[in-house]
Design brief:
By secondary structure, the chain is α/β, with parallel strands linked by helices. It has a single domain (about 5-310), classed as 3-Layer(aba) Sandwich (Rossmann fold). About 35% of the residues lie in helices and about 15% in strands. It contains twelve helices and nine strands. The protein has helices spanning about 5-30, 55-70, 85-95, 95-100, 110-115, 145-155, 175-180, 180-185, 210-215, 215-225, 240-245, 285-295; strands at about 75-80, 160-165, 195-200, 205, 205-210, 230-235, 250-255, 300-305, 305-310. It has a five-stranded parallel β-sheet with strand order 1-2-3-7-6. It has a two-stranded antiparallel sheet with strand order 4-5. The chain has a two-stranded antiparallel sheet with strand order 8-9. A hairpin with a 2-residue loop joins strand 4 and strand 5 (about 205-210). Helix 2 runs parallel beside helix 3. The longest helix has 23 residues, at about 5-30.
Length: about 300
């Protein structure tokens, strides 16, 4: 849990790039997973299912928290926006967690093909986090119970720390809002630590979120009213995230601000699910998808013979 240097910052950035690429590849590709030739319509899945808009923020949060907590067995990441499952699966794949329960998800080219080709596919991986996913204890999303689940795990377990990523649309639910009161019931001696992280990306599906419309003062005052100390992480730079995690404040409530669909071809409301809906039918969309995938320079992060080089 120490401050990080240049090598750690570079690793976080490279890991986020790798997981962003894998998130896009899972949603779109059924072949040509390393872009070894120009992208063709037949490389695209016949039916596109998935949610891109929240993926980059999930990857940023996961990578930074992983760097901060390392392999602490008492640390748990709880994903509220479970509909961003391609991001979670990408991280679990890189960590080797998928391979522990499914030998086909090995950290090599065949494993990469397996997770991408079978995402949102019959008899494959679902589009949302599910009980079959290793380490998953809540699906979250619009149901809003991720924070309550985390406090339940912390109850009576002072050794545990749980970081909970909460979507800003998710926080509008009565369940999530009510769960903020658990800080006063479960927080304290004899129980574990829960670290809420609000992913403030501004939109839920195609509409602005309530919290995106609030002023910073309004939002911070609301968080303070529940007994937390707001800590803003403005953007996706690892330096900002690590600085926030290393601040010594009582009962922190982190606010991660990133654009919805950051890094993709469409921002905000058009990025929620599949930003480019018909790349197999529209050449201009296929070209945009190719440019999007190439923008991550995945060839710098993964070698077909050696695997990941991040």
């Amino acid at each position: 849990m120490s401050s990080v240097g240049i090598s750690e910052i570079n690793y976080i950035n490279r890991r986020v790039r790798a997981c962003d690429y894998l998130s896009v590849a899972q949603i779109y590709l059924r072949d040509n997973f390393l872009l070894e030739r120009p992208l063709k319509p037949e490389d695209i899945k016949a039916r596109l299912l998935g949610h891109w808009g929240t993926c980059h923020g999930i990857n940023v949060a996961y990578a930074n928290l992983k760097e901060y907590f390392g392999d602490d067995p008492n640390y748990t990441f709880v994903l509220g926006p479970g509909h961003g499952f391609p991001a979670l699966q990408a991280n679990l794949f890189i960590d080797g967690k998928l391979n522990e329960v499914d030998k086909r998800a090995a950290l090599d080219y065949e494993g990469l093909v397996y997770i991408c080709r079978n995402f949102s596919w019959p008899d494959g991986f679902p589009s949302h986090a599910s009980p079959m996913t290793p380490t998953v204890i809540t699906e979250g999303g619009e149901l809003g119970y991720a924070l309550a689940t985390a406090y339940g795990v912390a109850l009576g377990h002072p050794e545990k720390t749980l970081a909970v990523l909460i979507g800003d649309g998710e926080l509008e639910t009565a369940t999530a809002l009510g769960s903020l009161n658990l800080k006063n019931l479960v927080g304290g001696e004899g129980n574990g630590v829960v670290l809420p992280i609000l992913h403030l990306n501004g939109y839920k599906i195609s509409a602005p979120t309530i919290y995106a419309r609030k002023s910073e003062k309004e939002l911070n005052d609301m968080i303070r009213g529940f007994g937390f100390t707001p800590v803003v992480i403005d953007g996706d730079a690892p330096e900002a995230f690590q600085y926030a995690l290393n601040q010594e404040v009582e009962s922190p409530f982190y606010i991660l601000k990133t654009e919805k669909g950051a890094g993709g071809p469409n921002a905000h409301q058009d990025a929620h699910q599949v930003p480019l809906k018909e790349p197999a039918q529209k050449p201009e969309e296929l070209q945009r998808l190719s440019e999007w995938l190439h923008s991550y320079h995945f060839e710098e992060l993964f070698d077909k013979e050696r695997g990941f080089t991040i």
